[in-house]
Write a structure and sequence with these properties.
Layout (H helix, E strand, L loop, with lengths): L32 E5 L4 H8 L5 E3 L14 H19 L7 E13 L2 E3 L5 H11 L3 E12 L4 E13 L4 H9 L20 E5 L2 H5 L3 H10 L8 H7 L8
Parallel strand pairs: 1-2, 1-3
Antiparallel strand pairs: 3-4, 3-5, 5-6, 6-7
Helix pairs in contact: 3-4
Bound molecules: zinc ion.
Length: 244
């Protein structure tokens, strides 16, 4: 596959390792960095791993059904922040490590209404029928908390996704895989057999569950050094160039 020109990609920076042997009190930007991903999603774990920081997963237990009546982008922003703040609040103090908590939440919105995770095959069938052949939004919010500094940054990435005209038989085969049931909108853009998406304007990793391009910008705003391999970031976009 030949990825498109990734004009929106940030340039890689230089990571400078820090010796912990001096015993001096380290300023925050000299401390070893440790990430905490406040999400149990295996897709987010795989995407965050591409940035090459050490991280662990702490699931927040924040209520994802609160504020479901909110406007979709506001809903994901609220939920991502609730996850990150809940996990950051549970951490004991550690003056030797700079800890960054990442909360994220993704939702699918069609005609202004949120499509959540389907509870039954009938719900999955109905969502996929509504989405078929049309454009919808996928909103993914990221909340980044720099624990020791008491700083937080928030972003919402909104991508426009066009669904192809898949057949009812394809929908049944896809539902039979069980894949729709933990996915907002009842589909995964990256599903190798179903391949439900014919067009994308936005960040492909963002639609999968973590907009890496936005996250990299947020990390730079906090002066966190880059460690990612640009080629891996291109691959993560699966050939989709950014058009927004
Ligand atoms: Zn991107």
């Amino acid at each position: 596959m030949t990825p498109g020109r990734m004009g929106a990609f940030p340039r890689p920076g230089v990571f400078v390792p820090v010796s912990a042997a001096s015993g001096r009190r380290l300023s925050p930007d000299m401390m070893p960095i440790h990430f905490i991903l406040a999400s149990g999603s295996p897709r987010r774990r795989e995407l965050l791993a591409l940035l090459n920081y050490p991280f662990e997963i702490v699931v927040s237990g924040a209520d994802e059904d609160a504020h479901l009546d909110a406007e979709p982008a506001a809903y994901v922003a609220h939920t991502a922040r609730a996850k990150a703040i809940a996990v950051a609040g549970r951490l004991s103090s550690d003056p030797t490590t700079r800890r960054l908590v990442i909360g994220a939440d993704t939702t699918v919105a069609l005609d202004g209404a949120i499509l959540g995770k389907p509870g039954t095959p009938d719900e999955a069938r109905a969502m996929l029928a509504r989405l078929r052949g049309r454009d919808h939004y996928v909103h993914t919010a990221v909340c980044l908390v720099d624990v020791a500094a008491g700083r937080e940054l928030n972003a919402v990435h909104s991508a426009t996704v066009t669904m192809r005209n898949y057949t009812p038989a394809e929908v049944e085969a896809y539902i039979a895989t069980g894949d729709p049931f933990d996915k907002a909108g009842a589909y995964a853009i990256q599903h190798a057999d179903f391949r439900p998406v014919s067009g994308l304007r936005g960040c492909y990793p963002g639609v999968v569950g973590l907009p890496l391009c936005d996250l990299i910008s947020m990390l730079r705003e906090l002066d966190v050094p880059d460690r990612f391999d640009p080629a891996a970031l291109v691959d993560a976009h699966a050939g989709h160039r950014h058009t927004t």
